[in-house]
């Protein structure tokens, strides 16, 4: 908003900036993502890992403008890994350009999967079904305990794809841009457009692998952020 003060001729500029994080919804309020610049931040992603001294923990910071990610930072201070991305400028690890996997054969893929912190029975049935279905079809499965780092690993080419149900916007807002800028794809688990508030995602190095996973996976629809 731009306004002028007639008395002294000064011009005042006010920019509306939003914030989405676990702390902003502590009272049960729903997240609201507007067209205004919005910071989506998770100060500790992989909290359970952190508590147990497991090294897969990170800070996740993303800037969204016009409901689209523009800037992403995922930093693992334990392993000193700094993942960064700007829309249209590529994705990087500690300053070096990174690229997602180009694998198209599911049988050769290493996948990231997660159980999540919620033990909702309906969700767990879906998670276990998908894991049991995928085990004989892929090269291997891995679970890091951090959605942001899972996405960063797919951007790096360390995994060929990963997906999760029940995560939150602050877990995935930065990782989504890392994957895109590394040449990968970020989608809803149904194969539709990624929705940062939907609490589910699928990312992959190639559309071919993503499409194969969509056909195989059983779906779960958590309450929206």
UniProtKB/TrEMBL annotation:
Its cofactor is Mg(2+). GO terms for biological process: inositol biosynthetic process; phosphatidylinositol phosphate biosynthetic process; signal transduction. Signal peptide: none annotated. Pathway: Polyol metabolism; myo-inositol biosynthesis; myo-inositol from D-glucose 6-phosphate: step 2/2. PROSITE patterns: IMP_1 (PS00629), IMP_2 (PS00630). Mg(2+) binds at residues 22, 42, 45, 171. Keywords: Hydrolase, Magnesium, Metal-binding. This is Inositol-1-monophosphatase. It comes from Timema californicum.
